[in-house]
């Protein structure tokens, strides 16, 4: 019976095979004919000229209570991104309370005097958006993106979260537990530990030296009163900026700001004093973190860069693009593509108030950690010693300009770009001239910038991994490096890093 039932199926399949083969043969012929008639490129086509950024300079006004209101109008799509940014963040964490600003900001959306955390989330979802809050260096923010008709209701939620959080004890403990669990996972990563240690070496005992998200020792010390005091100190109208980007006129934006934030009063007491990112003037310049049994090692080079003008911001960005911001950059070419020592080598430039933090990060085999340190140092040296070729410079600037243009295509990206300028204490009008500033950077600018800021004495290096594998090879490269065990690491300290 089985054979009889299966027989027609076999016949049907076999009868389709000639037609199927004919179709494949026809398709193959068409592909070959198309390929034969196509003009082959012997070299890649040159990049197109950058298109001008079609955006007006943001407008700015100020409410009577001191709140700055910045509006970047973009017509055509009925969306608006709103960000309320307090211009203080992790840099104002008190001693032994690392992570206070981050925890305080994260808890703002976890309950107010009028709504619980689930109710806030449901209200935001009903408007078609999500309500987000958080903090970093020099900033803490509440943000939301909605369609233009929903903006008034969204701003009501943003104002409620910013002005009336309750810091419920059960939410505090839940958030504290989640953060501690995240740190436990993060501290098992060589890359995370090397980055945290390098940042501590770069800033020493300064305000930017401690981990912004806190430490396993500092988070349990934070009390509800500390969270309330941090919020009161930082979230005040004379220390805040409301950014509105999207389909809204400056007049309508200012009217909405007055409705929702005009009654926001300035609390008693002075607002936080802005903190500048000053480099460490003493302490160790390199460190090895012993992680027994680690399958890999991480190498991180860090630099605390000084106050920068608008032109230096552009020069730093192009330098970073040349060195390590993406796959075609020098670090990745030298370490991954030529030598196969890592899945990826990268550099990043993080803007801070009137300054920046520069970081190179590479993860590699324990056995090749010392070799990678030498390669990273050599590539940083080359920035000041050798010219950047015209073709390389043009390609890196084109990539950087294209990435910037794409990043501000959305209202949320546009608001983020404005926020980065405000946090760095730069005028929002620089947004409109960003592309011109990048195009103006020359090879001489890069070499001058590298010579002034990237000297060997200013670099800080951290290597985390199975130290017994690479410590001996590192000694000639990192003389005087301190060694600390993973379990003894104390990132609240700058004098030796160990308990």
Detailed description of the structure:
With 499 residues, the protein is α+β, with helices and mostly antiparallel strands. It has 2 domains: 59-261, Cytochrome Bc1 Complex, Chain A, domain 1; 286-488, Cytochrome Bc1 Complex, Chain A, domain 1, CATH 3.30.830.10. It has 16 helices and 12 strands. The chain has helices spanning 2-37, 100-107, 117-126, 151-163, 169-186, 190-203, 224-234, 250-261, 310-323, 330-337, 369-385, 390-407, 411-423, 434-439, 443-453, 467-474, and strands spanning 59-62, 68-73, 79-86, 132-136, 139-147, 240-246, 286-290, 297-305, 345-352, 355-364, 460-465, 482-485. The protein has a 6-stranded mixed sheet, sandwiched between helices. Strands 9-10-8-11-7-12 form a 6-stranded mixed sheet, with helices on both faces. Strand 9 (345-352) and strand 10 (355-364) form a beta hairpin. Helix 2 crosses helix 7, helix 10 runs antiparallel to helix 11 and helix 11 crosses helix 15. The protein is globular. The model is unreliable at 1-18 (pLDDT under 50).
